[in-house]
Every structure is written in structure tokens, then in C-alpha cells.
Amino acid sequence: MSRAIVIGAGHNGLVAGLLLARAGRKVTIVEQRGEVGGLCAASEVHPGYTVPGLLHDTTGVRRDVVDLLGLSRFGLAFESEAPSVLAAHSDHKGVVLHAEAKRSRDELEMLHKGDGDGYIEWRGFLSRIRDFVSGVLSQKPPMMKPDSIAELWSLGKTGFGLRRLGKADMLELMRVAPMCAADWLQEFFGDPLPAAALAAPSAIGASLGPWSAGTAASLLLYECVRGAEVKGGPAALTQSLQKAFEAAGGEIALESEVARIRLDHGAVCGVELEGGRFVEALLVVASCDPKRALLDLIEPGTLPLDVEEQVASVRMRGMTAKVNLALDGRISFRDREGERHARAVVADHLDDIERAFDAAKYRACSERPHLEVSVPSVNDPSLAPAGKDVVSVLAHAAPHNLEGGWSGETSARFGDAVVEVLERVAPGTSAKIVAREVLSPADLEDRYDLTGGHIHHGEHALDQLLFMRPTPKLARYKTPIEGLYLGGSGSHPGGGVTCQPGALAAEAILKG
Ligand SMILES: Cc1cc2nc3c(=O)[nH]c(=O)nc-3n(C[C@H](O)[C@H](O)[C@H](O)COP(=O)(O)OP(=O)(O)OC[C@H]3O[C@@H](n4cnc5c(N)ncnc54)[C@H](O)[C@@H]3O)c2cc1C
Q1: pTM
Q2: What residues are in contact with ligand 1 under a 6 Å CB criterion?
Q3: Cα Rg of the chain, angstroms
Q4: Best of 31, 40, 55, 446 to mutate for ligand 1, by most ligand atoms within 8 A of CB?
Q5: The domain 3-40+61-73+231-315+457-511: what is its CATH number?
Q6: Rounded Cα–Cα distance for residues 60 and 39 (Å)
Q7: How do residues 115-132 score in pLDDT, each as one tens digit?
Q8: What are the residue ranges spanned by the domains of the chain?
Q9: 70, 142, 173, 189 — which has fewest CB within 10 A?
């Protein structure tokens, strides 16, 4: 039987490889780095301090894919409930936003009368549309011209699902999706803090601010698939995938960078590794980003011109930097001494996020970036020495195309700005820092081979999501080159730790 090659041992490459191996294919995953996991791999920040993945949010991992893969047999487990998030504030104790909205009611009502009920109403709408939205995200984008009963059925099911929401929620969904997240959230909250904290994810992985049209759609998609975290974080997910893949007979070749995807008469015949070794394969699934796969690894001029042009126009402008902190003590948020919070969002006001985006739009780093803070040692104390914390910060509004470029000096300056913002909401943090690691979008590009340093392999925006990802002609994972498929976060349903693009790519290969 001919071999299948998967390019990249990130979580999507592992999922695709596992499904193909279970279907009886001989699969080799080739990974340029010396370890498995891609962006999910754990890394040591400082002796004794580890972050369990470059990223930290595993709430988007799809339970149905995990069940399909039987990952619990390979050690994967979830926390018992969706995490709460502290909306931290620089002048007061902020508010804890629980996934179960009623638990936040009293704190929100104290902040502003009516906000507790507003939050319950907002979450209520999300819970009513959740099954429909997550259903759309869990299936291959439909064919615009269905060519089989199965395709027609799938299209009909989506339409029926929308109709089944009922008139009020269906209309509300259609009204909200094109809106900006800020306007939508302000319909529910009088105080700026909860709206800012809830809007923050809509700006992640996008070159947009909360007042940009369409950010409500990103927020809906993000919120409708959230569940409990994976125990042990992203690294635990990829470790279980690796075990399952190897148990299914798959092999992983580390430190094996693909330099070219080779073709014979327009069909894939294998890959050439850096150094010249050729590995034969009639099927290649590329889980690296679509620009790397189709513009760098394929001989220019091989793809139809319109496809090549569309891929070249996919927007991948990195806007996020990663800052890891090793603390000689525990992080303590303002007026919350003694409380432990594994996750916090730092943005007092929607305007703060928009202003930070304004700076980045004009190729400057914001001096007041908005932050998503994770403290992995809260749930897993083994990640830091006893009584101490490791803190993982996603800092937004750090443009890849910074005027003058990124250097050690600009990274250090941005790291200082991040610590300054953090200090406002968690006083005393800066004095506890024993080590700091700043990864600019340029570092992310170099280290993880991410075009533009983009964390999602392509921006999340209305025209680059759902049935258009990465481009309308490539949205069903198959490329015009026979035997070549896309299977990473650049494909539907997009970036994040979900396992879904890899699973859908395998489905497209196995079921057509
Ligand atoms: C700083 C940061 C923070 C993030 N935070 C979150 C978060 O909190 N929550 C969330 O859901 N998402 C987050 N994301 C996004 C999320 O991590 C990604 O969308 C997802 O992990 C990508 O998984 P993947 O398997 O599709 O690709 P990757 O993990 O990028 O894997 C692709 C693999 O391909 C390999 N590769 C590339 N080119 C080649 C080649 N030529 N030859 C061989 N191998 C190659 C790479 O080395 C890599 O291992 C974050 C991303 C970053 C960078």
C-alpha cells in the first residue's frame, strides 16, 4: 500500500494522521521541529517553570472528535466544568465571569444594575444557538452545487437546523452576525468592563478591533464551541494523540522539514526533505499553513493561476505576541488576595482594545496592549516550584509588520508594556518576576514556521471563515493537485485548538 504523508505534527496533523492510520493507510507524519505538538508543545520558561503549550486555551477542543478517536483510552481527560474568567480591572477587583451565568449575577449587579441579568440573557441566547453553530462548524463546508444525495442532505440539514432555532433566535442570529462585537455587547451591559472582557476574544487572531464589523460573528463562533479545559492543557492533548497515532501503526519523523511537495503529471508523488531525501507518497496532507503549503512547497506556476492568486491574498497579519513569566511567588489580582484565578482578561474598556488595535493597524506596538492571562500552575502546581506561579500571557496589538521590524530591543520594550499593564491589575507582579520570555510575531514565524507569525494560520474574519477558509475554492480540504489536501488551522473551521480541521480533512479523503 502506498504511503500517506502528513506535513506537521501539530494537533491537527496528528488527528488527520490518526484517522488515516485507523482506516488502514500507512502514515508518516513529517515534522520540521525536534518535538511533537506544534503550537501545543510544552516549553520550559526557566528551570522549574513550564508552560503546557505556547497557547493555553483548550476550551474549543471538540468532544465529538475526541470521542471518535477514543482519546480517553490514551489518557485524555477534561476538567469538570467550563472555566471562569476574571475580568480584571486596574482600579477595582473586577468581576468573575462564570460560564454558568447565574453564578456571576450578584457580582455583575454590584458593578452596574442590570448587568447580571444582561449576562444571563446573553448566555441564554448563546446556549439556544449553540447546537446549530457547533453543528455548522463540525461538518465539511457544503458544496455550493450539491452533486449527490448525501451533499444535498447535508445542505438541507443546515437549513433545517437554522429554521429549527425558531423565528426569534434565527432573526437575532442573522441580525447579530455582521455586527461589531462592541455594539452587540453594549446592548447587554451598562458597565464597560464585562463588555470589554467578553469582546476580547473577537479580536484575537484577527486584524480587527471590537468596533470592526463582523467581530460579533467571530465571538459567536468562539463562544458556541467552548467547553471544559483539557486536563494538563494542550500538551496533554497532543501526547494522547501521539500515543493513539503510534498505537495505530503510524510513524513520526522529527527534524524532517519538507522542502518541496513533488508532483508527477499533476499528481502528488512524494515530498523532498531539506537535505534532499525523497519520501514517496501518493497522498499528502499539509497541516502547515496554506501559504506555506501552496506557495512555498509547490513549484510556482503549478496551481491554476486564480487559485494561486487567491491563496496569495489570504490575510495572515500576526497581531499577537506571547509573554511567559516565571514568578518568585504567586500572582495576586487587585483586591482579590487569597483567591486563585487560572484565567484573566485585562482590558478595562472596549476603547482600550480598540486603541490598542489602532496602534497595531498603523504598524506600531500598543503601549497598553490588552492581555489574556493564564496561570497554568493554578490547575497544575507541578508546572512551577511550590508556592510559585508560571504565567502565560497572550498580548494583542503587536503587529508582525512593525515599523522598523522586530528586534531584541523592540521585543523587550513590548515585554515591559505587558508587565506594566499586568502590574495595574495584579500589583506586585513585576517585583516577583525571575524570568521573562517574549515571543514576538516574528519569533513565532521563525520558530514555528507561521506565515506572518499568524497564530491561526490565517486571520479570522467574515470573508476568511466558514465556507471560505482558506479560499472558497479550497474550502473542502482538497486542492486542485491530485493527492494533495489541506488539514491545518488554515482550513474550516479555523484556528484554535479544536482537532476539527484535521478530522474533516481526513473525512474528505476517506469519504470524498
Ligand atoms: C502564541 C499563540 C497563542 C495561541 N493561543 C491559543 C489559545 O489560547 N487557544 C486556542 O484555541 N488557540 C490558540 N492559538 C492558536 C492555535 O494554537 C492554533 O490555531 C493551533 O494550535 C494550530 O494547530 P495546527 O495543528 O493546525 O498547526 P500547528 O500547531 O502550527 O502545527 C503545524 C506543524 O507543522 C510544522 N511544519 C510547518 N512547516 C513544515 C514543513 N515544511 N515541514 C515539516 N513540518 C512543518 C510546524 O513545525 C508545526 O509543528 C494560539 C497560537 C499561538 C501562536
Answers
A1: 0.94
A2: 7-13, 30-33, 38-40, 54-57, 60, 257-258, 287-288, 292, 320, 322, 394, 444, 448-449, 455-457, 488-489, 495-497
A3: 22
A4: 55
A5: 3.50.50.60
A6: 15
A7: 999 999 999 999 999 999
A8: 3-40+61-73+231-315+457-511, 119-220, 320-448
A9: 70
